Amino acid sequence: MCTPLSSELTSSPSASGPLAAYGWDASLDAAFADHRAAGLLPCRVTGVDRGRCDIVTEHGPARAVSTPVTSPDPARTVCAGDWGVLRPRSGELPVLEALLPRRSAIVRSTASARSEGQVLAANVDTVAVVEPLTGPVDLARVERLLALAWESGAVPVVVLTKADRHPAPDSAVAEVAAVAPGAGVVAVSAVTGDGLDALTALLTGTVALLGPSGAGKSTLGNALLGADVMATGEVRARDGRGRHTTVRRQLLPLGGGRVLIDTPGLRGVGLWDAAEGLQRAFPEIGELAEECRFHDCSHTSEPGCAVLAAVADGTLPQRRLDSYHKLVRENEWIAARSDARLRAEIRRGHREISRSLRQSYRLRGRKE
Asked: Where is Zn(2+) bound in this sequence (predicted)?
């Protein structure tokens, strides 16, 4: 139950208090020193509504007014996982006045025409990319979500759920591990409990579950929590899709200072400023590119391309290169739409081409 906070509650969080269970540590305590001196309280955002948010403080859960930290920019607005600066008010809801700098953030491109980034979760340490084993593994989707996870600054882990419904889960793990260098890959079954111990050993700090609807994120979350806390739903047999049973991001303690963030299912997720994440998701292509004849090789048709040579000799699968090209093009397109400087350069390039064509036509007319 959330209760109003007294304006006199200004004590520093303890190592064993409620905030410690949500990830509060010494570095956060040091960063909050000036705010504490001003009589403000630290808190962590556990859920967000319009103009309000659920929070947890050293004195327990509460509700707060979040208008001061609600931004028209979806990448900067308050989100589950944020650490906040809270001003208590006697007899009224406290006000979340500011957010501490984010250590990491999962940001995707929005579906709007404004080409903005949308933050899905903040201050995440581990991203659990959830993919169901109810059919052929969507390797392209796994690669996309891995790029998103690496770009966030967190460490990704690929979780293959519903392993009890797959005839050879070990082979699926091997298949995914081949496209997930640097990330742990675990097959789990929330029904039998297989793989849960191995997965738990890979989860540290704040853990965000990321995956499509019907992947079993909420069921997995309940298994990790040891209780049916998150709502779950059935998956349609005809297409394997599930309903959005998780309609907003929520943050729950896992124990041992670990925290779980369940996110709504992602039926489509676009990259946002993810150049570094793509390099981390496709490191072998970056390594091969160092051997290309041209430093700006696009790995499409250039002579002396080490990447194409690796495809030709079977070292690099063609599907893997195609996936890389697709994600790079998407990321560059988003960057071109969102960056005013790039847009101006593209417009200038188009004008120069137009001028060149006009001059060519004029010269051709004079010769005729």
From this structure: 292, 297, 299, 305
CA atoms within 13 A on the CB side of 248: 13
Architecture of the domain delimited by 20-99: Beta Barrel (2.40)
Say whether 21 counts as a known binding-site residue.
Answer: no
Q: How many CB atoms are closer than 10 A to CB 174?
A: 11
Consult the annotation and say whether 217 binds a ligand.
yes
pLDDT in tens, 210-236: 999 889 998 999 999 987 776 554 554
* Confidence (pLDDT) at 172: 97
What pTM value is reported for the model? 0.83
E strand or H helix that includes residue 207? strand 206-210
Class of the CATH domain delimited by 275-347: mainly alpha
pLDDT tens, 151-205?
999 999 999 999 999 999 999 999 999 999 999 999 999 999 999 999 999 999 9
- Give the contacts of 223 (CB within 8 A, at least 6 positions apart): 188, 190, 193, 196
Q: Is 299 part of any known ligand binding site?
A: yes
Alpha carbons 316 and 254: distance in angstroms, whole number: 40
- The annotation status of 212 as a binding-site residue, yes or no, is yes
Q: Is 237 annotated for ligand binding?
A: no
292 annotated as belonging to a binding site for a ligand: yes
305 is an annotated ligand-binding site residue = yes
Q: What is the pLDDT of residues 81-131, one digit of tens each?
A: 999 999 999 999 999 999 999 999 999 987 655 667 899 999 999 999 999
Annotated binding-site residue? 215? yes
218 is in an annotated binding site: yes
Closest CA to 223 of 162, 182, 147, 152: 162
Residue with tokens 């989100």: 79
Residue 211 counted as an annotated binding residue: yes
The whole-number average pLDDT for the span 333-362 is 66
367 among annotated binding-site residues: no
Q: Is 79 annotated as a binding residue?
A: no
Confirm whether residue 171 is marked as ligand binding: no
Q: Is 213 annotated as a binding residue?
A: yes
Tell me the domain boundaries of the chain.
20-99, 105-262, 275-347
Residue (of 16, 15, 18, 35) closest to 84 by Cα position? 35
To the question of whether residue 46 is assigned a binding role by annotation, the answer is no
